[in-house]
Amino acid sequence: MFESNFPMDRRSLPYVSYWNAMKKIAARYSEGEQHAMFHDTAARVYRI
């Protein structure tokens, strides 16, 4: 599961830069694993 501290981190880097870095890190994983990282795990943990 990815996390961020936005908007507080806005002073250190733009959101687009952060998001692009997370996409590059996740690129080596399958589509299902990426979906789990960006959505499913948080939905399950936070019950949303």
From TrEMBL:
Coiled coil: none annotated. This is Amidohydrolase family protein. It comes from the Bacteria. It holds the Pfam family Amidohydro_2. One of its GO terms (molecular function) is hydrolase activity. The lineage of its organism: Bacteria, Pseudomonadati, Pseudomonadota, Betaproteobacteria, Burkholderiales. Keywords: Hydrolase. Residues 1-48 form the Amidohydrolase-related domain.
